[in-house]
Input
Amino acid sequence: MIDLHSHILPGLDDGARSLQDSREIALRAAAEGVTAIAATPHVRADYPTRASQMEFGVAELRRHLAAERIAVEVLHGAEIDLSMLWEIPPDDLARLSIAQSGKYVLVEFPYRGWPQSLPAALTHLRRLGMTAMLAHPERNPEVQDRPDRLEAVVGDGALVQITSASLDGRLGQAASTAAEHLLELGLVHVLASDVHGPHVRDGGFAEALRHIADNALRRYLTVDAPAAIVAGEPLPPKPS
Output
C-alpha cells in the first residue's frame, strides 16, 4: 500500500516531534503493509514549511530508515493551505507536489465553512498542469451535511482523499458517516492515514479497510490510484 498523506517529518509542523516518532510511524506503517509514505508537512500560516525544508527532512529520514533497515520509502510532498496556492511560485509548487512529479498537489480542505475560492484554486492548478487532491473533506461540517456537494468539485477535476481515522470512527461519527457517504457516491480516490504521531493521532489502515467490503475498491484506494499519483500518471478506472 502507498500512504499519500502523513506528517512523518520531525519538527516541521504538528506531526512527528522527534526522529523516534518518525521511526515509530514508519515501523507501524511497514507492519500494515505500507511500502511508501508521502511526507506532507503543512504549508500554511502557522507552519510555513518551505520546499527546501521538506526536501532536507525527506533526505535525512530516508538515511535514518535505511540505516535502521525499515523498508518504507519516504516520498516528497506537502499539505498546502488553499489560500496559499497563489503565493507559491510554480517551481516551488512542483517541488511540493506528491513525489515531486509536478502533477498532483495535496490541498488542505478547510475544517469549517465551504471554501469559496475552491473553483479558482482548481483553475489555477490546471493552468500549471496540476491536479488538486483534497485532504479530508469528510471532516468539514458542510460536507458532512451534504456529501453530494463534492460531486461538482470532482467533476471539475479534483481528487478526494479521505482519512482512515475518519472511516473507522476515530474522528467521530459525523466524519465516519460522511466518509461512508462519499464512498457510496463514488467520490473518493485515495485513502490515507494523515498520521501525526502518538501525541496527536496514529496512522493505521487495517481497521478502516474493514469498513470497505469490496476488495477491488480497497486496492484502488490504497494501491492503484496512489501509485498513479506517485508516477504522475492519470488515474486508472475505478472498479465498478
